[in-house]
């Protein structure tokens, strides 16, 4: 083999290795996006079933952590805070690589940190007020405000990739956060089914994560096929 041929072969091998290595990020992000909502739902459901006197429709979701089996919910938030960083890394590469993907990645990284702190720092017992309880509130509010902006910046990439339905659903998810968040500026005493409405954005987030998990997994498989075919 000539020197030029050897260089060409070596360059092709390096390129293939890079492409194969580049598939692990969307694969890890996709797996995290699929696992987190399922584990969260399982932990939340188990905690609710084990705490029959907890009113899911009326009580804030944060108050479930104060019950005997509230550690299940705390575990779910901590898991989200760890696994979410893989999702942030994946969204930095896909569906776009422009400035909006960098914004998405940064915001998701922060939101996962806020989720971690939300799980570690509990809310106050109703009728009391502590410093750590206020810290919990700050992390929750920042999470609720920043997460829809993080998902909003995935819309251009999804639209350009041809995933129009995913882009439309992402816009609807952002709108859900905006409407519920604005409505909850009213005093809690004026609400009926406070806990139910508080969980609507959480449900929309779970569906969005599963959707992105499927798309990221498909992207990882596509990258592996491309690398193997070269």
What integer is the average pLDDT? 82
Beginning-to-end CA distance, first to last residue: 20 Å
**Estimated structural class:** mainly alpha
Major β-sheet profile: none
Order of helices and strands: HHHHHHHH
Q: Helical residue percent?
A: over 70%
Which term fits the overall shape?
A: globular
Fill in the keyword field for this structure.
230 residues; mainly alpha; single chain
Explained architecture:
Helix 1 (3-22) packs antiparallel against helix 8 (194-229). It is globular, with a radius of gyration of 21 Å. It has one domain. It has 230 residues and is an all-alpha fold. The longest helix is centred in the C-terminal third of the chain and has 36 residues, at 194-229. The protein has helices at residues 3-22, 24-50, 71-93, 99-120, 131-152, 155-161, 164-183, 194-229.
Please describe the topology of this protein.
Blueprint: H1 3-22, H2 24-50, H3 71-93, H4 99-120, H5 131-152, H6 155-161, H7 164-183, H8 194-229
Helix pairs in contact: 1-8, 2-3, 2-8, 3-4, 4-5, 5-7, 6-7, 7-8
